[in-house]
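Annotated sample (chain length 159).
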Amino acid sequence: MGIEAIYPTPRLSPTQPMPRVYPYLRRGVPITHVHQVWSTDITYIRLHGGFLYLVAVMDWFSRSVLSWAVSITLDVGFCLEALDPALEVAQPEIFNSDQGAQCTSLDFTGRLAAAGMQMSMAGRGRALDNVFVARLWRTVKYEEVYLKDYETPREAMQG
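Output written by the structure step:
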């Protein structure tokens, strides 16, 4: 009769190529000068009607924010908006990030490779590999975002 149960079978959809993940280069390396290691990370800001995403590029030695950008979407474009102004300032020896889709994208890693930097990626579940940017997010949220309770993206960007 041709009656067959409907259920997922193995390999129904084609596999996507995995992005290249780079090794973590920061382990045991002392930070001794400015522009030796930079890192980046993304956080979200809760709005009344959704989210706003914030990315920053930070120098590990001086712990200064070199550039930042905001977006209402999580595409790689706003990460490149933050990366480009930072690269106009200087080029680090090591650029550290997490293994998120934005930082493993060919656009992002290609820009770093073209600048001649070593790429380093934190391991999964290792929040302390990018501790300085994580600490920045805590400060931004507790000293600005949570106090203001933004309603719109425009209001948050101005803040």
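Annotation: The chain has four helices and five strands.
Annotation: The beta strands are 37-47, 50-59, 65-71, 94-97, 118-121.
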